[in-house]
Amino acid sequence: MTTIRDATPSDADDIYRLLSGFVTSYRPDRAVFDDATFPRIVEAASAGSAEFLVAEQDSCRRNGPDGSPRRRTHPTGKGSPGTHARR
User: Distance of alpha carbon 74 from its chain centroid, rounded?
Assistant: First the structure.
């Protein structure tokens, strides 16, 4: 089953991994992503001025090294992450 939900700070690792895989014109800076970019996206989405969603697939759950479930998240929407305005 796939669940679509708002992105949260706990999605940062998965979203950064996807960003790094998609970007071809530059190498994303993890510190900038963690300290500025992603928190601003989540804040804008919480305030209703942007929409940043992830798709979470239950069938992809696997246990991590600490025994906690892992999940796969996929950002959704049009344009740059976090800039898709709510309509």
Answer: 7
In three-state secondary structure terms, 36 is: helix
C-alpha dist (Å) from residue 59 to 9, 49, 62, 69, 75 = 22, 32, 9, 11, 17
pTM above 0.70, yes or no: no
Phi/psi of residue 51, each to 5°?
-130, 125
pLDDT tens-digit series, residues 13-33? 999 999 999 988 989 999 999
**Band of residue 57 on the pLDDT scale cut at 50, 70, 90:** confident
Domain boundaries, the chain: 2-76
Q: 68 phi and psi, to 5 degrees? A: -80, 150
